C-alpha cells in the first residue's frame, strides 16, 4: 500500500539567515580583545581615571572618554547588514600597521611619556589588528568606528591650552564684533583684549569701563 502526498501542499525549504560570525570566531574575538586590553591596560586605566576623576565623579572636560567606545560599538552595530554580506579574509597589510602601532605606543612610554602619543598609536594598533583578522572588504565598514576612538584620547596639556586659549580669543573677538554693531543703540563702547571683553558706558555722568 503506497501513500501519495496531499495535493496543494508544497514542501519548501526555508533558508536560514546567514550567520554573521561563527561561534568559534567569537571565542577568538573574545580572547584577542582580552589580550589587547591587557596589553594597553595601563593607558586605558589612566583614561578611565581621568574621565571619572578617580571614580568619584565625571570630569566635565574629559567625561566623554567613557562614552566614545559605546558610540563606536553602535556604529559597528548599525553596519551589521553590510558586514554580514562582506567576505572575511586575512589582511596582511594589517600586520605591519599593528607592529607600527605597538612600537609607537612603547615609544610614548619611554623615552617620552605622552598619553596623547600613546593613545594615537593604540588606535593604529587596533586598526592593524582588525584589518589583519577581517580583511579589507569588511574594513570598509569598520574603519570609521575605529578611527572614531581617537576622540577618547586625552589631548596633552600643552596642545589643549594652545587650542583652548585660541578658541577663547576667537570667541571673544566674534562677540566683540557682534556687540560693536549694537553699541551705538545701547550707548556703550566695546573692545577686546585677548579673551577679555571690555564694555565702556556712561554711569551717572562718569565713563566707566
Q: Sum up the overall morphology in one term.
A: elongated
- H/E series: HHHHHHHHEEE
Could you tell me the strand content as a percent range? 5-15%
The beta-strand count equals 3
Which residues form runs of ≥5 with pLDDT under 50? 8-18
Distance between the termini: 111 Å
Q: Note the quaternary state here.
A: single chain
Q: Which structural class matches the secondary elements? A: mainly alpha
From the alpha carbons, calculate the radius of gyration and give it in angstroms: 28 Å
Query: Mind describing the biggest β-sheet?
Result: 3 strands, antiparallel
Helix content: 55-70%
Strand order of the largest sheet: 1-2-3
- State mean pLDDT (0 to 100 scale): 80
Number of helices: 8
Structure at a glance:
The protein is mainly alpha-helical. The chain contains eight helices and three strands, in the order H-H-H-H-H-H-H-H-E-E-E. Helix content is 59%, strand content 8%.
Secondary structure layout plus pairing:
Layout: H1 23-39, H2 41-52, H3 68-78, H4 80-85, H5 94-107, H6 115-134, H7 136-148, H8 157-186, E1 188-193, E2 196-203, E3 206-208
Antiparallel strand pairs: 1-2, 2-3
Which features characterize this protein?
single chain, 209 residues, mainly alpha, three-stranded antiparallel sheet, 3 strands, elongated
